[in-house]
Amino acid sequence: MAAKKLIKNGIIVTASDQYEADILIDGETISSIGFNLSSADAEVIDAKGCYIFPGAIDPHTHLDMPFGGTVTKDDFESGTMAAAFGGTTSIIDFCLTEKGRPLQDAIKTWHDKSKDKAVIDYSFHLMIGEMNETVLKELPQVIEKEGITSFKVFMAYKNVFQADDATLFHTLKAAKDLGALVMVHAENGDVIDYLTKEALENGNTDPIYHALTRPPEVEGEATGRAAQLTSLADSQLYVVHVSCAEAVEKIAEARNKGVEIWGETCPQYLALDKTYLEKPNFEGAKYVWSPPLRDKWHQEVLWNALKSGQLQTLGSDQCSFDFEGQKTLGKGDFTKIPNGGPMIEDRVSILFSEGVKKGRISINQFVDIVSTRVAKLFGMFPKKGTISVGADADIVIFDPNHERVISASTHHMAVDYNAFEGMKITGEPVSVLVRGDFVVRDKQFVGKAGNGQYIKRNKYGATSQLKQNQTLSI
């Protein structure tokens, strides 16, 4: 049990408020918030000059994940440690299934991967690659026993993860009845397959062709198709890693018609662009992930969508592979470059620095995007995602004025490069608590592998949440 702690002199920021107050933590939860609080047996923590945010929640990570003949470099220990340094106190990782095998087998595999490793709290999404009577019978138990209330369907990666439209539609119908949120990787896998084969036949093998064979139109088309199917099923949809104007347009169009659809973008799409894939000496491979990076003008479209509420969350899509020995597997054939990048550590700081500091979003929107809205959408609110009495004491003490340069030489991920190398940002977590215990204290790791707890999540819509047609008042 965590010892009592009293955080004083900081400015508390939630999705709706900003005020100066003290926070008393008793055990794992916040016991009181007020002015001039005192507690004889509590350790006093001075947060002067800092913001106090609810712990950030990363809704999109791939730790210890097999892909393309290799495995992601960061596992549940290094990945969650890096997340904690970045101000993230909970993650939701993707549990990959295999056709013809029980869903429970895949879930057990992911429990085994994370057991005694995570330093912060964690949960799972479940991939759905096929939909039949066997799968349908398993789903209620997955929700009730495991607390997994979100299902991922891939519309891309033909002959690997891609599901057909019937599977997506059936999943949407089932999720409506079961109280689950369907997530889609929205790219037209069939068209990508055609364009990829064409590129290779023409001898176009460099990393830039990863982007050129996955143009924004294939993301926009798949997003629009998924939105239409969601409307037809009268269900709910969450579009992961939105990268381009074409997809934003389809999400906004559907939301304006009353479809219950939500959109996530990622820091890489807000801060990097397609030219990174053209770096010499095969370094462009460091920036190969899907959807690919876009022309720079898409960035402002994404920022405006976050500001206007047409996109609501920021995932990292953490999926790290070393440049040497993993990314280099694709030399001479861009299709063999493992897709993914190291994003988990810098997600929160980049949004603060590029968003709040540059006036693109308000500080309340920032908290909503990295924490509160995720907690509401994925059945973790109000235990997670806010600073209130009774909530878990997942707290980030954040210095808004500290300037630093992002670099692989100082990051805490296990991977050998940083996608944001050399980027100057303002704002950094100083101390991070998970359920009342320090994981990072004064920028030093003090956590312990295995202290992270598995989160069983509530059904979609079961917790208090903002309906999609309501906007955050700021």
UniProtKB/TrEMBL annotation:
EC annotation from Swiss-Prot or TrEMBL: 3.5.2.2
GO molecular function, a single term: metal ion binding
Xref: SUPFAM superfamilies: Composite domain of metallo-dependent hydrolases (SSF51338), Metallo-dependent hydrolases (SSF51556)
InterPro entries per record: Amidohydro-rel, Hydantoinase/dihydroPyrase, Metal-dep_hydrolase_composite, Metal_Hydrolase, Metallo-dep_Hydrolases_sf
Names of the cofactor(s): Zn(2+)
Modification after translation: Carbamylation allows a single lysine to coordinate two divalent metal cations.
Protein name: Dihydropyrimidinase
